[in-house]
Amino acid sequence: MSEAAAWRKAALPRLSTVTSNIKGCSLGVVQSCGAVRLPFDQDLRRRAERQRFQTLRPHSRAASTCQHEQTTTTTTTRSNNNNNKEAAKSQRVLPFVKFHGCGNDYVLVDAWAQKVSNPGLVARIVSPRSTGIGSDGLILVGPATNSGADWRMRIFNADGSEAELCGNGLRCAAKFAFEAGLFQEKSMLVQTGAGVLSLELRLGARGEVEAVRVDMGPPRLAPSAVPTLLHGTGPHGAVVLGDVDAEGQTVRVTCVSMGNPHAVVFGSEEVSDAKLQSLGPKLATHSAFPEGANVHFVSRLPAGMPGIRVRSWERGSGWTQACGSGACAAAVASQLAEF
């Protein structure tokens, strides 16, 4: 038996108590900060736009006389000014900052200072990279509702759905909370949708946060804990290399929960962009995963390089440059499948 095989055999019985950690690699500085205008009343905004369109329509046709053209222009200008004032009344300004962890980027808002009544809508407004700020989602950093936590992080995917947690997002939130003066202890207990997690900050010479270490807790392997409808036959009841029919294509997945559901697919070579974009969403929304799944395609690094390569398709956000909880899930799944 090889040394690696012996290590796996010894480690497997302890999987239920293994603690996965995200070290503070590539924790981005503030990429941008500013304020975004958000509609208070979507119906009012739509009415204003509809009225503006109806006013502009006559002006778009050729005018019969110069006098008629001047009258139409004056009317349009006045109407536009009124509509702009009406639309402005229906908007508010929301300050934000933007961080990334390993390229996994988020718009962050101080929920102590700002009330966000519809965070799912805000996430859909700010996340598009062409028409919004551009991010993998929205994070609210605010007061905890759990007495055992120092503060709370809520995360909303690009499609507006709320996720349980995000490892990279939590690192970004911790840096934001500390450097904005919201909470200034180097050890933090943070409330998430997956429970209270422990964080440790490493500070630089100027007092800035250089790295964040997150204790992600033990992996959950039982199918009901992932959750998945697949039948588990592996250690601790885990689904290891279980078959999933993705529109006529059989895919073997290993399922792990790090407080949020993950499906890991192993391959002999790095997954192509086309396969990632085709198979990723099919698995993320597959009926085998009642709450959806974050899908990760794992391959080995070139010979002589230890470790694995992970490419992710996240439920609610699509392709992302990294996934912290997914990296932990991929490491656990690789051990389970002896990859």
What can you tell me about this protein's structure?
This protein starts with a helix and ends with a helix. It is α+β, with helices and mostly antiparallel strands. Helix 2 packs antiparallel against helix 3. It folds into 2 domains: 32-37 and 92-215, Diaminopimelate Epimerase, Chain A, domain 1 (Roll); 220-336, Roll (Diaminopimelate Epimerase, Chain A, domain 1). The chain has helices at residues 3-11, 42-60, 66-89, 119-126, 167-179, 273-284, 324-336; strands at 21-22, 32-39, 91-101, 104-110, 137-142, 151-157, 162-163, 187-192, 195-203, 209-215, 242-246, 249-257, 261-266, 294-300, 308-314, 318-320. The chain is globular and about 50 Å long. The longest helix has 24 residues, at 66-89. Residues 52-89 are annotated as: Disordered. GO terms for molecular function: diaminopimelate epimerase activity. InterPro entries: DAP_epimerase_AS (IPR018510), DAP_epimerase_DapF (IPR001653).
Looking at this protein, list some descriptive labels.
globular; 339 residues; alpha+beta; ten-stranded mixed β-sheet; Diaminopimelate Epimerase, Chain A, domain 1
